[in-house]
Write a structure and sequence with these properties.
By secondary structure, this protein is of the alpha+beta class. Helix content is 26%, strand content 33%. The strands form two sheets. The chain has a seven-stranded antiparallel sheet with strand order 3-4-5-6-7-8-9. A two-stranded antiparallel ribbon has the order 1-2.
């Protein structure tokens, strides 16, 4: 029997295709995030990457080396989520610093941009996000991750 915590839940919405099993999608999400964790650990700016919860990842958190990134912050992190949709996956790669700056590449519905894939940025928590639609040529989770990491280092 599948518990509600095993389904792919975003807010109050559980994502399960018609006739699908939320447990299968949970396992798929875990496999994808486990693969992305291994890829993150290969990047020179990643000091540590962890998945939570331990046995069935729902998200990844990477602690980044600010000296390698060349940013004026003491701490920086990257949070990664991935929702394996039947047609198009949705994901979020969200960077934040202890300075208050944060930005991210998200593929999910957002009323501020046309389409699902966008970049968002704000200088501090008091500021509003600025949004722009973006596109990726990447089509697999590892390629999306490396595209985001390249774009992140370019933005910083």
């Amino acid at each position: 029997m599948t518990s509600p915590s095993d389904s792919l839940s975003r807010g109050d919405t559980t994502v399960v295709p018609d006739g699908g099993n939320p447990d299968d999608l949970g396992r798929k999400r875990h496999r994808i995030l486990r693969e992305l964790r291994r890829e993150l650990e290969r990047h020179p700016a990643v000091a540590r990457a962890t998945g939570t919860p331990d046995r069935r990842y729902r998200e990844l958190r990477a602690t980044l080396d600010t000296a390698i990134l060349g940013v004026d912050a003491n701490e920086a992190t990257l949070r990664v989520t991935w929702w394996p949709e039947p047609d198009e996956p949705e994901y979020a790669f969200h960077y934040s610093e202890d300075t208050g700056f944060d930005c991210g590449w998200h593929r999910e519905p957002n009323p501020h941009v046309e389409g699902k894939l966008h970049y968002q940025e704000r200088a501090s928590p008091e500021d509003s996000y600025e949004y722009e639609s973006v596109s990726f040529q990447a089509d697999t989770p590892p390629r999306v991750l490396w595209t985001v990491l390249d774009r992140l280092t370019d933005r910083l």
